[in-house]
TrEMBL record:
SMART domains: FCH
Localization per Swiss-Prot or TrEMBL: Endomembrane system
Molecular function GO terms recorded: phospholipid binding
Native source species: Myripristis murdjan
GO-annotated cellular components: endosome; plasma membrane
Membrane topology field: Peripheral membrane protein
Signal peptide segment: none
UniProt name for this protein: Si:ch211-51c14.1
Pfam families given in the database record: FCH
Length: 278
């Protein structure tokens, strides 16, 4: 005996099947390519910021070198002259600090991302990545039997709707026959039996296929979730690494917490204290 589905149950089961249509995993597969491109963009961003730091360091050095002769030959003397000279020397130290930031962005942060990118993404000979192919193959393998069942279900659904239209026509002929005394009762009964038989056969076939699909759905979802969990684990590793990369760059760029920056200020203050009259 087949399970008897109500029309609402059949529509609900069909909507669940549609929500699991084959090929709906491409967005997950594409995350590998997106992450690889994100690494390229991040490194390019680091390198551009490094150029900004280098240019700033060069401009500070040029500015300091331009003013040193003028300051040294100025008529000022004592603590006032020393304060002006300290102003220039702090720029030299700051230029050295930003030059160091430039080197850190390229040789530490940028190289770290490049090394991780090389170890984490393996390009195939004819394009794409091995990691993408593994995930895509896993999803495709899990969806193959599901797609076959969905195709069979769609065929049964179309047959069911087709016979439903025929049933409607049979109802109309039956109604016409009942109101027509020229049509024999035997013929009327034959028309009714034809309608009922067609309805029962196709409905039973549709319910059987729908029951099979519904019964297979948990296994299908389990296999799909298993592949997705593998992809999620890789995504978590990528996110974790890139977060650390950004934390590293923020530490390098935060001059307020940089000891060398603090030294620039302290040296100038100490020099001023030494020249202060007793």
């Amino acid at each position: 005996l087949h399970v008897i589905f109500s029309k609402a149950e059949m529509d609900l089961s069909l909507s669940l099947c549609v929500s699991r249509q084959p090929g709906n995993y491409q967005r997950t597969v594409k995350r590998t390519e997106d992450a690889f491109q994100a690494c390229n963009d991040i490194v390019a961003c680091f390198q551009e910021r490094a150029r900004v730091e280098r240019q700033y360091a060069q401009q500070l050095s040029e500015w300091s070198n331009k003013w040193k002769p003028l300051v040294d030959s100025s008529p000022l003397y004592g603590s006032l002259l020393k304060a002006w000279q300290c102003f220039l020397s702090s720029a030299d130290r700051l230029a050295s600090l930003h030059a160091t930031i430039c080197r850190s962005l390229v040789s530490e942060d940028g190289d770290q991302v490049r090394t991780w990118q090389k170890d984490s993404f393996h390009k195939k000979l004819f394009g794409g990545f091995k990691e993408s192919q593994d995930i895509d193959t896993g999803f495709a393998r899990a969806q193959k039997p599901w797609a076959k069942r969905l195709k069979k279900l769609d065929k049964a659904r179309r047959a069911y709707h087709k016979v439903s239209r025929k049933e409607q026509l049979a109802r109309e002929r039956e109604a016409h026959a009942q109101g027509n005394p020229d049509i024999a009762i035997e013929k009327q009964r034959k028309i009714q039996e034809e309608r009922e038989l067609a309805q029962q056969e196709v409905r039973a076939r549709y319910e059987k296929v729908l029951e099979e699909v519904s019964r297979y759905a948990p296994r299908y979802m389990e296999e799909m979730e298993s592949i997705f969990d593998q992809s999620q684990e890789e995504e978590r590793k990528r996110i974790s690494f890139l977060k650390q990369a950004f934390l590293s760059i923020h530490r390098h760029l935060d001059v307020t917490n940089n000891e060398r920056c603090a030294v620039c200020v302290c040296v100038c203050v100490c020099e001023q204290e030494e020249k202060r009259p007793v």
